[in-house]
């Protein structure tokens, strides 16, 4: 089994992370908090996102969910720094990786899975369709994050 499949298997069996202890469930506030920590600590590479989390941030910035105020320039700087820290063609490489739905366990390419912006769990189109609809257009994870992808 190659490294991509092993990492996908680990993701499938891992317990999904949950929201921070302050109960901050909005994607905008979640990203503002993380980008703020990066800024306060003088831009350490350890505070940059990678993998699924960076894909979710990029998708969220690109989709601008309903009701999202104008994006904080700090979030955009943080995204740009995170992307600059990745290998060339990282985004398309990530989308081609296989992952699984954290609900039903079925395997898909990441490009076909929805990612939660806050806890980074992934759901297939069938399972994300069963989640609560917060508006006429967007669905939310039980942690309060937006489904993107």
UniProtKB/TrEMBL annotation:
Region spans: Disordered: 1-26
Highest taxon listed in the record's lineage: Bacteria
Protein name as it appears in the record: Uncharacterized protein
Organism: Aestuariirhabdus litorea
Lineage, opening ranks: Bacteria, Pseudomonadati, Pseudomonadota, Gammaproteobacteria, Oceanospirillales
């Amino acid at each position: 089994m190659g490294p991509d499949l092993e990492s996908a298997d680990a993701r499938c069996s891992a317990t999904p992370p949950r929201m921070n202890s302050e109960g901050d469930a909005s994607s905008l506030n979640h990203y503002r908090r993380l980008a703020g920590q990066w800024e306060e600590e003088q831009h350490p590479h350890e505070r940059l996102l990678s993998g699924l989390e960076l894909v979710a941030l990029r998708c969220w910035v690109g989709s601008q969910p309903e009701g999202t105020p104008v994006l904080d320039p700090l979030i955009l700087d943080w995204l740009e720094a995170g992307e600059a820290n990745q290998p060339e063609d990282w985004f398309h490489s990530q989308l081609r990786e296989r992952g699984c739905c954290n609900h039903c366990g079925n395997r898909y390419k990441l490009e076909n899975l929805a990612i939660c912006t806050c806890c980074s769990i992934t759901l297939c189109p069938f399972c994300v369709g069963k989640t609560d609809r917060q508006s006429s257009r967007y669905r939310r994870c039980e942690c309060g994050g937006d489904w993107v992808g």
